[in-house]
Amino acid sequence: MKSNATFISDISKKEFPIADKVSAKTIRNPILALIQNDYPDFDADKFLSLTELNMYREKYISNYLLVEIGELTNLETRVIGSLNEDKSLVSTVEDEAGIRTFGQIVADKVAAFGGSWKFIIFFGVFILLWILANIYILLNKGFDPYPFILLNLILSCLAALQAPVIMMSQNRQEEKDRERAKKDYMINLKSELEIRMLHEKLDHLIMHQQEELIQIQKVQIEMMNDILTRIK
């Protein structure tokens, strides 16, 4: 049967389930200092809810980031939000695939083809056939006789158009690399903060268990004293 017992938080004076009750004795000093900064009367004998404790843990992490890296950016804010909502940042990052425009798609394909052996072989064969056709088939009296001015014009135009398209693709690749670096930073930052939170939770769990063991020992001592009293 599920218990409906509740308690009143000494911070917000609101009612919470007894399972969320946290003693001030089990809170680490840095977080306790933050709570006492807002509530000076909050001492070792007071209690608060786990939700309120998590709020101050988040505040502690925010203050830590402000000290370490200065003003919080959108990246740090998103990381803290993911910690508070208990969401996987990796899946969120992977879902953010950029939608390429038509121009970006064309630039990527041109850069991929222009930087391949297929393009070199294809264009080398084209130039060779052009030269052979004008010299041997048309006997150098064709539409582009030696020194092949039309061919030079085509090559110049191709180089002039291909260079900026390839640069567009390279700029896009650099932008993708920067986005990957941001995502790696977010994941690493969340890992570090989760380790800190894990230490907080472990310390809270250990101190909470110690407090329960002390209470059990007190009860056992009282029972032993009652037994001794009856024996006497």
Automatic annotation (TrEMBL):
Name of protein: DUF1003 domain-containing protein
Regions crossing the membrane: 119-139, 145-168
Keyword Membrane listed: yes
The entry's keywords: Membrane, Transmembrane, Transmembrane helix
Annotated source species: Flavobacterium psychrolimnae
Transmembrane keyword on record: yes
Listed Pfam families: DUF1003
